[in-house]
Amino acid sequence: MSPVQLVGGMAYLTADEMRAADEETVGKHGVSVLALMESAGAATAGLTRSMLGGAVVGRKIAVLAGKGNNGGDGMVAARHLHNWGANVMVSLSERSSIGEVPALQLSSVERAGISVTGPDGSVGGFDILIDALLGYGSRGAPREPVRTMILSANAARTPIVAVDIPSGLDATTGVASDPCVTATATLTFGFPKAGFLNPKSREFVGKLYLSDIGFPLEVYQAVQQTTPFARDTIVQIW
To answer: How would you class 15 by CB atoms within 10 Å of its CB: exposed for 0-12, middle for 13-18, buried for 19 or more?
Structure first.
C-alpha cells in the first residue's frame, strides 16, 4: 500500500488505500471493527465537548447517523455525550438496512434511553450537530433520505462536527457532491484522506483534526510514515 502523497511527512490515503489499511488492521492485526468504532466515537464525543467549551451538561446535540460504520461511530459519540450530561437525539437514516456492527451501537443507544428518530427528525434548535451519515467509501451524490438530512443540517446554521469526512465529499478527489455537509470541523481517523489535499475541499471540511483510533504502528510504517500520535491522540492538521 502506497499513499497518494506524503505531505509534511504525513500520508494522505485514497478511499481504496484507506480500505486496505482498515482491512490490514482488522485482518492481520486482529483489531476488531467494534474496537475501532468505539475509539472513533469516543474521540468524536471528546472533540464535540471541546467545541462546546469543555462541558456538555444540558447542551442539545443531534447526531445524524447513517446505516453504515460511520453511523455507528456517531452513535458511540451519542452514548458518551449522553453519559456526560448532554441532551442527545439520534436521527437515523435507515433502520431496516443498518449494518451488523452499527446495529449493536443502536441497541446500546436505545437502552441508554437516548431518543432515536427517523430521517425526518428536526435538527433545529440544537447547540451542535454531528454528521455521521456517510463514510470515506461513499461516492456520488447522496441519495434520499440522506440528501434531505444533509440539506437540513446545512440549513440549521449550527456548528457541525463531521465524523471522518463531511457527508457528500469524495475522500479520494475532494470533490463535493450536491449536497455536501459544510462542517465547522472534521475529525478524520487514522490517516487524512487524499481528497483533503484538494483546496476546494476546505470550505466543507472546516478545521481538520486527525484522531488515533488504534491502527497498529506497522500500518503507518507500510506507507513510510511514523505514527503522528507520539504527543497526542488528536492532532490538528489545519
So the answer is: buried
DSSP 179: S
- Pick from 140, 184, 136: nearest CA to 18: 136
Cβ pair 73, 163 in contact under 8 A: yes
CATH code for 5-236? Answer: 3.40.50.10260
Helix (H) or strand (E) holding 16, with range, is helix 15-23
The model's pLDDT over 28-38, given as tens digits with 9 standing for 90+, comes to 999 999 999 99
Question: Which amino acid makes up residue 84?
Answer: W
* Structure confidence by residue, pLDDT tens digits, 204-238: 999 999 999 999 999 999 987 888 999 999 999 98
Mapping DSSP onto H, E and C, the string for 88-129 reads EEEEECCCCCCCHHHHHHHHHHHHCCCEEECCCCCCCCCCEE
Looking up cell 434520499 gives 144
Sequence-distant (6+) residues with CB within 8 A of 162 are 131, 181, 183, 185, 186, 187, 205, 206
Nearest-5° Cα angle at 14, 219 to 32: 45
First-last CA distance in the chain: 25
Angstrom distance (rounded) from CA 120 to CA 98: 17
Q: 156 by DSSP, 3-state: which?
A: coil
Q: Structural domain boundaries of the chain?
A: 5-236
The answer to whether the pTM exceeds 0.90 is yes
Contact between 51 and 184 under an 8 Å Cβ cutoff? The reply is yes
